[in-house]
């Protein structure tokens, strides 16, 4: 290897494909564009492995010098983007989201944001689609790789070329095998964890260690053409619903590796195409473009409370490229070159930056998101995001073995002689629990709450969360052991169980449920499974009287955010859900309940009928109380404000 690997313009062209793929994917214009990150991984592995092994061979490799280059390459532009992000979003983020931004900044400067966002995938966590620094997870994976790889390179520095390739190939195979296995166990873990991604970077290292270039121009071009075909197929045919990474990442990774390998030979038509000046320029600014594109998209989504459309998308692209060019020209380029005499100050400054960010994150945690930056009314409306069921940690998601041991949350009047009702459901039940408990207390009654967020109250049904069926089975067994229970109150996100999707600010599709009678999972089959599952649950609860709490309005917007932005800027002007939209969403559920009523006896409590009107729609507030903590779930105050409605479920005949 040469001590100074030569520049290849076609690699910048490949970078351009990668970054444009990611940008267009995030704008909803390219379904498989997420594989752009995988292309970046391969390029990174190729380029940096060339440099490391060249310097190892020349006896000039230095860990300090390596990390100086990494800091100069990564940190300056990242610092500017984070600073602009925190200043810009200070004007629009709710306190709970601003606190999360501080946390993600701290994780980013520690290059642990992949782990941070992995921990934020819980049911009640804010949607990652609105996390301004979500995209930094890929930077974290790379830097975690580069904590280890230079040490490995030094350890095998004296080995022959074939032994080096063998070591890298072993790492590649082990990481790929782990990715293929884990993506079937937990796809989120496989997506974010570094060891399930390292094989993609190692694919680039294998190309760098390849013993020779393609033996002819024709073979070089054939390699690159095949690589382009694999990339094009992945970009066009892949979609978010597929298992990824695992073996699904092989085509784009192999495609990028083949292009890098083909470019090592004589210049040909593909390398000439990738070396076109517009592509090369986009490749040169690709890092800054990657950094800037996501916060800009999130800012638009956050303020518009929907996806950008038409001219908004065009303006977003202009803003991304303008910021990227300025960042590349005035931040990246001037600070990229090595300066041994300033290395100590560089390391010290980077440490100081990290300390400042951690301090900011800590203050954000202590102050709960710097609410003082908002006017009083906006602050009060935004605070509803934190106004959730205070007993969630104690009552939600009880493990089946705890239910088998007789443990359950007691709600209602603690002085009542004995529990006489059961309150069961998913996150809608958890959110409603303060109101149901207050309703029972006023009636002098006590009951047990069996709630599990993410699990519809359906028996004999396999749901997206594999913990659901064991929980429902354990809940039914608990009910059978307590013969003193006379009544069961059930509530859930019934529409999602029936229709297989989520309505509101955060979207969710293909929530498929199945049972033993299902021919195959599908949205159409959901309706039949829903009816059978609810009927089985009612049969299992017999002879208890069953009440269904339903038709809780699902709002279009995240309510605390919508109210805060309306207070600040008058947008959105019409925040509450129009009655027609509510009725359209609930109509299939009304039909399903009507069918069920032919064979089952139950009373139905219509929450929406008590809230909604033609004139006002389905309001976000009632008597000055913010009813929701997000777009669908009642706030604690909202549940208490609706306790009179919820009380109907505890009265015979409603």
Could you characterize what this model shows?
The chain has 654 residues and is mainly α. It has 2 domains: 361 residues, no CATH class; 219 residues, Rossmann fold (3-Layer(aba) Sandwich). The chain has 28 helices and 8 strands. The strands form 2 sheets. Strands 1-3-2-4-5-6 form a 6-stranded mixed β-sheet. It has a two-stranded antiparallel sheet with strand order 7-8.
Quick structural gist:
With 654 residues, the chain is mainly alpha-helical. It is built from 28 helices and 8 strands. The protein has 2 domains: 361 residues, no CATH class; 219 residues, SGNH hydrolase (Rossmann fold, 3-Layer(aba) Sandwich).
Tally of separate helices: 28
Please list the strands of the largest sheet in the order they lie side by side: 1-3-2-4-5-6
Shape: elongated
> Gap between N and C termini, in Å?
81 Å
Helix content: 55-70%
Number of β-strand runs: 8
Protein name: Acyltransferase
InterPro entries: Acyl_transf_3_dom, Acyltransferase_3, SGNH
GO molecular function: acyltransferase activity, transferring groups other than amino-acyl groups
Organism: Aureimonas ureilytica
Q: Which keywords apply here?
A:
acyltransferase activity, transferring groups other than amino-acyl groups; membrane; 59% helix; transmembrane helix; transmembrane; mainly alpha
Write the layout of secondary structure elements.
Blueprint: H1 9-26, H2 36-58, H3 63-89, H4 95-109, H5 113-119, H6 137-155, H7 161-185, H8 187-192, H9 198-208, H10 217-237, H11 250-262, H12 269-274, H13 277-284, H14 286-304, H15 311-336, H16 343-367, H17 376-382, H18 392-395, H19 400-404, E1 409-412, E2 421-425, H20 427-442, E3 446-451, H21 468-481, E4 487-491, H22 494-499, H23 523-541, E5 545-550, H24 559-569, H25 579-596, E6 603-606, H26 607-611, E7 621-622, E8 625-626, H27 636-641, H28 643-646
Parallel strand pairs: 2-3, 2-4, 4-5, 5-6
Antiparallel strand pairs: 1-3, 7-8
């Amino acid at each position: 290897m040469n001590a100074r690997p030569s520049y290849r313009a076609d690699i910048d062209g490949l970078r351009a494909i990668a970054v444009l793929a990611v940008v267009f994917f995030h704008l909803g214009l390219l379904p498989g564009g997420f594989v752009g990150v995988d292309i970046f991984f391969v390029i990174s592995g190729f380029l940096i492995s060339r440099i490391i092994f060249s310097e190892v061979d020349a006896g000039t490799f230095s860990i300090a010098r390596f990390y100086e280059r990494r800091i100069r390459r990564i940190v300056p532009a990242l610092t500017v983007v984070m600073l602009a992000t925190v200043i810009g979003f200070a004007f629009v983020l709710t306190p709970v989201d601003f606190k999360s931004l501080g946390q993600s900044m701290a994780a980013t400067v520690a290059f642990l944001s992949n782990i941070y966002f992995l921990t934020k995938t819980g049911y009640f966590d804010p949607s990652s689609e609105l996390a301004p620094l979500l995209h930094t997870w890929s930077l974290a994976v790379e830097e975690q790789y580069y904590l280890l790889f230079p040490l490995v390179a030094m350890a095998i520095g004296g080995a022959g070329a074939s032994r080096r390739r063998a070591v890298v190939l072993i790492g590649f195979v082990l990481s790929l095998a782990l990715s293929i296995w884990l993506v079937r166990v937990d796809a989120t873990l496989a997506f974010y964890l570094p060891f399930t991604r390292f094989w993609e970077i190692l694919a680039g290292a294998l190309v760098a260690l390849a013993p020779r270039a393609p033996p002819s121009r024709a073979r070089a071009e054939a390699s690159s053409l095949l690589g382009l075909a694999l990339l094009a197929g992945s970009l066009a045919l892949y979609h978010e619903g597929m298992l990824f990474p695992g073996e699904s990442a092989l085509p784009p990774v192999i495609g990028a590796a083949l292009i890098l390998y083909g470019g090592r030979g004589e210049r040909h038509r593909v390398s000439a195409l990738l070396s076109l000046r517009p592509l090369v320029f986009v490749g040169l600014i690709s890092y800054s473009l990657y950094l800037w594109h996501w916060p800009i998209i999130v800012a638009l989504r956050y303020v518009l409370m929907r996806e950008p459309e038409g001219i908004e998308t065009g303006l977003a692209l202009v803003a991304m490229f303008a910021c990227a060019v300025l960042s590349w020209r005035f931040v990246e380029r001037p600070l990229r070159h090595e300066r041994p005499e300033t290395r100590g100050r560089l390391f010290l400054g980077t440490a100081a930056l990290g300390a400042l960010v951690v301090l900011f994150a800590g203050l954000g945690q202590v102050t709960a998101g710097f609410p003082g930056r908002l006017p009083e009314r906006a602050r009060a409306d935004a605070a509803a995001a934190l106004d959730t069921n205070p007993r969630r940690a104690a009552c939600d998601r009880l493990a089946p073995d705890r239910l088998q041991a007789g443990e359950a949350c007691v709600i209602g009047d603690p002085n009542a002689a004995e529990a006489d009702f059961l309150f069961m459901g998913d996150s809608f039940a958890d959110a409603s629990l303060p109101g149901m408990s207050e309703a029972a207390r006023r009636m002098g009654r006590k009951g047990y709450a069996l709630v599990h967020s993410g699990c519809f109250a359906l028996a004999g049904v396999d749901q997206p969360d594999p913990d659901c069926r064991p929980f429902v089975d354990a809940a039914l067994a608990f009910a059978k052991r307590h013969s003193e229970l006379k009544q069961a109150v059930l509530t859930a996100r019934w529409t999602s169980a029936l229709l297989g999707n989520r309505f509101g600010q955060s979207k969710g599709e293909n929530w498929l449920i199945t049972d033993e009678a299902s021919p195959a999972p599908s949205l159409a089959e959901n309706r039949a499974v829903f009816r059978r599952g609810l009927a089985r649950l009612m049969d299992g609860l017999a002879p208890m009287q069953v009440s269904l709490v339903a038709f809780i309005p699902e709002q279009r917007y995240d309510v605390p955010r919508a109210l805060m932005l309306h207070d600040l800027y008058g947008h959105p002007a019409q925040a509450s859900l129009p009655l027609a939209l509510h009725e359209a969403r609930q109509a299939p559920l009304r039909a399903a309940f009507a069918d069920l009523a032919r064979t089952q006896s139950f009373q139905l409590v219509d929450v929406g009928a008590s809230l909604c009107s033609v004139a006002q729609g389905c309001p976000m507030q009632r008597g000055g109380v913010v009813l929701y903590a997000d777009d669908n779930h009642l706030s604690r105050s909202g549940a208490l404000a609706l306790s009179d409605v919820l009380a109907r479920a505890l009265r015979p005949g409603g």
